[in-house]
């Protein structure tokens, strides 16, 4: 199977994303619509372009279905919340739920390996985000959260629940050891812990949970940032791949320091950026710097490795 068959749906998604962002929404970074742009960058581009990195090789029509479901999810934001928007969101939720179930079955039949489980988690966490998108489009506010928090939670599970565990797992496979193993375990625990901590803060319960959860996730993510930058020094990498790894690692480093300051806002409020600035800076760094550049680097590395392996026997 050719690499192009799996990157092609991502190119389709990129075209749709560019048309919608540039032709209709045209948000500025501190506009809440910017959150949608970041969210659909993951849904339309990053996810369809990462199948090979996830060790998943769905049939071509599965990949096409992913783009179609993502497009329907995007169009659900062109109508008012309600039954129609819910129906337009259901295909994406069903697709992500199917992917999560298939991934979970594979994990349960394999031995526990933190790096492998992190790659698997990247196929599971987005299903939670898809459920929160259903709630947003139905205008249902779970636990009394407002619509903005519901949308941000969906974005959290499509980014922190996708690109972060995926690249943590890839780093763990490429750079095995206690450091990468610890980073994987911290992220595996940190992603759901942060969501739990935000819920506790919302209900004014256990105010220490959110700061602790953020510290757990940030510690793991900073480890991934260093591993990404370390990947730039691996042999046989082109300058372009090295640059992408560096940008990815540095972007995650800055983004997670901002996340740490926001998570500690109850203790150090003077260090906290306003929420619109957070999604404009933190969210953009995670999406374009860490996520997009990181996946480009790993994809190029995988393609070069596959090419080298295919030429190996001929050279012998």
TrEMBL record:
The keyword S-adenosyl-L-methionine does not apply. Keywords: Membrane, Transmembrane, Transmembrane helix. It holds the Pfam family YndJ. The chain crosses the membrane at residues 6-25, 32-51, 71-94, 115-135, 147-171, 211-227, 239-259, 279-298. The keyword Transmembrane helix applies. Signal peptide: none annotated. This is YndJ-like protein.
């Amino acid at each position: 199977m050719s690499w192009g068959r799996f990157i092609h749906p991502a190119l389709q998604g990129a075209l749709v994303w560019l048309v919608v962002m540039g032709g209709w929404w045209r948000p500025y970074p501190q506009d809440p619509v910017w959150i949608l742009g970041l969210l659909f960058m993951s849904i339309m581009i990053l996810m369809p372009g990462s199948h090979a990195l996830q060790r998943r090789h769905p049939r071509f029509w599965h990949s096409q279905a992913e783009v179609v479901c993502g497009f329907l999810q995007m169009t659900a934001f062109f109508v008012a919340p309600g039954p129609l928007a819910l129906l337009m969101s259901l295909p994406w939720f069903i697709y992500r739920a199917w992917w999560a179930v298939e991934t979970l079955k594979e994990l349960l039949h394999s031995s526990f390996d933190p790096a492998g489980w992190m790659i698997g988690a990247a196929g599971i966490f987005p299903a939670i985000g898809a459920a929160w998108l259903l709630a947003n489009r139905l205008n249902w506010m779970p636990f009394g959260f407002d619509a903005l928090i519901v949308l941000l939670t969906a974005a959290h599970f499509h980014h922190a629940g996708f690109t972060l565990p995926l690249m943590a797992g890839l780093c763990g496979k490429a750079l095995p050891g206690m450091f990468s193993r610890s980073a994987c375990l911290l992220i595996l625990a940190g992603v759901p812990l942060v969501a739990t901590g935000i819920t506790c803060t919302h209900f004014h319960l256990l105010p220490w949970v959110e700061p602790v959860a953020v510290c757990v996730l940030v510690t793991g993510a900073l480890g991934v940032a260093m591993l990404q930058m370390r990947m730039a020094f691996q042999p046989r990498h082109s300058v372009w791949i090295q640059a992408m790894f560096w940008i990815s690692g540095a972007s995650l480093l800055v983004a997670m320091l901002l996340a740490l300051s926001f998570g500690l806002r109850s203790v150090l409020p003077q260090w906290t950026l306003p929420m619109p600035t957070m999604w404009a800076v933190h969210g953009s760094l995670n999406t374009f710097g860490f996520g997009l550049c990181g996946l480009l680097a790993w994809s190029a590395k995988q393609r070069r490795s596959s090419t080298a392996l295919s030429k190996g026997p001929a050279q012998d």
